[in-house]
Amino acid sequence: MSTVRMPPILRQAVGGAREVEASGATVRDLLDDLTGRYPAIKGHLLDENGELNRFVNVYVNNEDVRLGNGLDTGVADDATVIVLPAMAGGSR
Amino acid sequence: MSVVSHRDHLAAVKEQIRELSTEDAVALRDASSAPVFVDVRERDEYEQGFIPGAVHIPRGNLESRIERAVPDHNTPIVVYCASGNRSAYSAKTLAELGYTDVVSMAGGFSRWKQNGHPWRVPRTLSHEQAERYSRHTLIPEVGEEGQLKLLDSKVLLIGAGGLGSPAALYLAAAGVGTLGIIDADVVDRSNLQRQILHTEDRIGMAKVDSAEVALKALNPEVNVVKYSERMDSSNVLDVITGYDVIVDGTDNFPTRYLLNDASLVAGIPVVHGSIYQFEGSVTVYKPFEGPCYRCQYPEPPPPELAPSCAEGGVLGVLPGVVGLLQATEAVKLLLGIGTPLIGRQLRYDALEMEFVELKMHRDANCPVCSKDPSEIEFIDYEQFCAMPSRAAQPAKEAVV
Fold first, then answer.
1. Could you tell me if B108 and B163 lie in one domain?
2. What is the ipTM of this complex?
3. Residues of B in contact with A91 (CB under 8 A)
């Protein structure tokens, strides 16, 4: 199981949790597991072709998966995964 | 104890040190491995003129400051004063401190000047400035030179809100000479929970005017340039050109993307900060050196997935932390010291009191920074929303 850290805007959709557990050998499997259990977040993370939305970044152990193998990037059992959509807020 | 006259004492000291003529000193100065010139006169003498490149350490501070200025004790040093006597004493002191190659310049600065060698009047802080910025000038990495650099610097703040408030106040306090502020809003009571530039009695005032009042009260010397307008593709280059660093604390995606693209064209680093509820992030986008905003997020989220602060709320102290991290990065960039947050995104979670650093890289296929700056075109908000892949209906501007 890996720990997935959810961004504030998606926490409501996972029951308010800051972190959730998910399993998968790759980011794709892991997100499949996650979106299977929390369907409400699917549209935020993945586009209609099942690819990662361009306004969302996923980091495995603090490294951007786009610089690895994207959704096929391997996820070790104890990895920390961070899901991070773009945030604009500056508080005008 | 026997009494020694000044004349005898000086003569004895001069026997223990080496002297050189101003001609020899000039020749050494022009050589490839030039010695360090140390000016041991008092500040008021130094201010009248000095040998360019010389380090100024008044004789009274010589022992305590020389090591910082000249760490290697084998560095050749030429000491000078006004006429060559104080420098003789100083040369002796430096030898006692273990400096191995010290000479005193006979005849001092007056003979140097007389003989037509190069000198100039140093640019120095005024008495008031020296007092105001003394805690800066005491830091070797800043010093008087660094403070003068800050006074010559220009920083543009995008937004005089939650992030812009603490950043602007501290940059003004630090003596950044020119602070540009662009913000089209007026002060609202709901701002005051976090936007510390503004006050209850300035509710209803344009934020740039309110900001000017606050910044001038803190440091009257700061030149505040106000832009009470929204940034769009027609004015963005006019607004940002000429600034050394941009502190981005805006609240909406169109401005973030426009600013990113324009900063690449203008070649200005952007210190980016964003906040949401209890979490914030900071990074530095240095054009063509590190990743840009579009390397990280090539496209903005559709409006329904893009929350603003008004919708999500924000803990009032959070922008204080994040805005000051931005100000810190801005000062570092201006001074050219330390390791800036280029290619690194620092994320702060106030509830967990946790900082995480994420690595970012330039995207060779970035839709913007992989291009030549002359080929970069600016995209305005409406055009964004009209893009085929985006929602057909134009999104409303995030209002916070």
1. no
2. 0.88
3. 161-163, 194-195, 249, 251, 275, 309, 314, 319, 400
